[in-house]
Specification:
The complex is a heterodimer of chains A (63) and B (135).
Chain A: H1 2-5, H2 10-29, H3 33-58
Helix pairs in contact in A: 2-3
Chain B: H1 3-9, H2 14-26, H3 30-34, H4 38-57, H5 70-80, H6 84-87, H7 89-92, H8 102-129
Classes of the chains: A mainly alpha (63), B mainly alpha (135).
């Protein structure tokens, strides 16, 4: 597994986490392939938006 | 196969719910496999297993049962949710944790998230096994 995940950057780890959790939530809460695909995409983009937004909000405090 | 036909394939009862829930905890997706929910079983195994293995490959920490701190204890219960991946953590990542670096710390969170996700799938497997109308 090290060759697959051992060298992930922090952003790649974020992308992977967002994708996996979105897919799982879609299968838990939706029925049908179209509904699940839509929910996966929506949740994935929401994860990214929130993570990048919080990152920018924290930026002034890192100086 | 249509969802209606699938629900009829396995008659639900309390014991089936418990068996499916326990199976799903031990091996992510196994509970759904017992209930013949093939696609859910495969997706849950890949997602929970992938997240757990990623966490371990990033050299995340795994909480033990003897934690004194309440947050460590919560971490232990979250990690335990990953089932077989928790018990095989040291075999999967023999180098051990390295939480001195941010990557290792992220790995710790990824592994805990895998455990929590699996607990959600266990609840669904239990509900389906009882004959519930989970999606």
């Amino acid at each position: 597994m090290n060759f697959l995940f051992g060298s992930l950057t922090h952003f790649e780890a974020l992308l992977f986490f967002a994708l996996v959790v979105s897919v799982t939530f879609a299968f838990l809460s939706k029925r049908g392939i179209v509904e699940r695909a839509k929910y996966t995409l929506w949740a994935f983009l929401a994860f990214l938006l929130v993570a990048i937004g919080i990152g920018w909000l924290m930026y002034p405090f890192s100086q | 196969m249509d969802e209606t036909i699938k629900r009829e394939a396995v008659k639900g009862n309390h014991m089936m719910g418990v068996v499916a829930g326990l199976a799903g905890w031990v091996v992510p997706g196994l509970g759904h496999l017992v209930l013949r929910r093939w696609s859910k079983a495969a997706v849950y195994f890949l997602c929970v297993g992938g997240l757990a293995c990623a966490g371990l490959a990033m050299r995340g920490g795994v909480f033990g049962p003897g934690a004194a701190d309440v947050f460590d204890r919560l971490g232990f219960f979250a990690d335990l949710g990953a089932g077989v991946f928790y018990f095989l953590a040291h075999q999967i990542q023999s180098a051990g944790p390295d939480v001195a670096h941010a990557t290792g710390d992220y790995g710790t969170r990824l592994f805990a998230a895998a455990g929590m996700l699996n607990l959600l799938t266990v609840l669904e497997a239990y509900d389906l096994g009882r004959g519930g109308d989970a999606r």
